[in-house]
Design brief:
Number of strands: 19
Shape: flat
Low-confidence stretches: 379-392
Distance between the termini: 126 Å
CATH superfamily of the largest domain: Immunoglobulins
Strand order of the largest sheet: 1-2-3-4
Order of helices and strands: HEEEEEEEEEEEEEEEEEEEH
CATH topology of the largest domain: Immunoglobulin-like
Helix content: 10-25%
Mean pLDDT: 85
Radius of gyration: 34 Å
Number of domains: 2
Structural class: alpha+beta
């Protein structure tokens, strides 16, 4: 009986071990399946939303193409029409935003150009973008894009009034013979004038055309800031003269801005962390107005650095664009320093800054060296100097 009892006890213990192993395997499977099932659900819903967004964009394009040519335009746009620029649609619990842009397009093979006088409105370019917010903890947004050209049957009709054509291109290029690079989706605004305000966005050809304007003087502003770019400072605003039956055209250059990071050091390479007075930074710019900033002790950080945003974004000049900056510093007497020089510092050491950048979107680390003004001699020093001069 004792032997049989031992055998039963061993069998019961073995069964318990099997149960624990089975539970562990099951838990591992469940824990692995939960994120997998979530990922599958995310992918499935995102695919459905992406398909729906594409269908909405295509449907909008077809609906616009079915309209008469003169009715193809957005509310408040140029060309004008009754199509809302922004619409929202909710399907299966998902809200989709439908944005519509309609622009005049000049045939690149035609007579019109940024300096030409041909009719600038050969076609209408229709672009529809449908977006929906991301799913599951603000995931990537769903986006669908569709576009088409709409042409008039027969010859183009001359519109009353005059026209403005803004052509936007990249500024930086190392090959002077290379063709201009157009920039799409740059905001161009008529902020003043008889038919203002109006807003357009450049097409893939880099153009924005305002047609059928009343004659007069217009203020045209180019705003590429939503793309992280800046206009050349002296080209940001243009005063256009529009005459009946003519086109005023202008070329604008935009680029990713360069930046300066500044640090103050003395001639012993020690950071300057305090100023008794103030000093003026003067940056002479090759395009646009010079920049002046007053620096006080409040601007200085513990390592002698100045705030990154002390100077504004700068138009990049260098091997791909002509020009040169010049930075000078004028401390007042209360600071106890005199300006020495400005150098650029990198991993290879430092050298005098030549006022240029390596390219668009680059940053230069500059060190401004200041020389301490020697303290005037005290009474003892003056007496010693007097005795030395008299030979006593």
């Amino acid at each position: 009986m004792r032997l049989l009892t031992n055998q039963l006890s061993n069998r019961q213990g073995f069964t318990l071990v099997e149960l624990l192993v089975a539970i562990t395997v099951l838990l591992v499977f469940v824990l692995a399946y939960i994120p997998l099932s979530t990922f599958i659900a995310q992918g499935s819903q995102a695919n459905r939303a992406r398909l729906t967004a594409g269908n909405l964009a295509d449907n909008m394009i077809e609906e616009i193409r079915s309209r008469p040519y003169n009715d193809v335009g957005v509310q408040g746009g140029n060309p004008a029409g009754d199509i809302p620029p922004v619409q929202t649609v909710t399907l299966d619990g998902i809200t989709y935003t439908i944005q519509t842009w309609i622009n005049w397009v000049d045939d690149p093979a035609g007579t019109g150009s940024c300096t030409g006088s041909g009719l600038p409105y050969d076609y209408k370019l229709v672009r529809v973008v449908v977006t929906a917010q991301g799913f599951f903890n603000n995931g990537a947004a769903v986006r669908a894009d569709a576009q088409t050209l709409v042409a008039r049957e027969g010859e183009q009709v001359l519109l009353p009034g005059g026209n403005i054509r803004a052509c936007v291109f990249r500024g930086w290029r190392t090959d002077a013979a290379a063709p201009d690079v157009p920039v799409e989706s740059v905001t161009v605004e008529l902020t003043a004038g008889p038919s203002a305000p109006q807003t357009l966005w450049t097409t893939r050809y880099g153009g924005a055309i305002f047609a059928g304007l009343k004659p007069g003087t217009y203020t045209v502003e180019v705003r590429p800031y939503s793309l992280g770019m800046m206009p050349r400072p002296d080209q940001a605003v243009w005063q256009a003269q529009v005459a009946e039956g003519s086109t005023a055209a202008n070329k604008f250059e935009v680029e990713y801005p360069a930046r300066l990071r500044l640090k103050l050091e003395d001639l012993a390479h020690k950071p300057i962390t305090g100023l008794a007075g103030q000093m003026v930074l003067h940056l002479t710019a090759p395009y646009g107005a010079a920049v002046e900033k007053v620096v006080t002790a409040d601007h200085l950080q513990a390592d002698g650095r100045l705030p990154d945003d002390l100077l504004p974004p700068l138009w990049p000049v260098g091997s791909g664009y002509p020009g040169q900056y010049q930075l000078t510093v004028t401390p007042d007497e209360a600071t106890g320093y005199l300006f020495s020089r400005v150098v650029e510092r990198d991993d290879n050491g430092e050298k005098d800054w030549d006022g240029r950048f390596a390219g668009p979107g680059t940053v230069k680390q500059l060190v401004i060296y200041l020389a301490a003004i020697p303290s005037p001699p005290g009474d003892a020093g003056q007496a010693a100097a007097s005795n030395f001069s008299t030979g006593e």
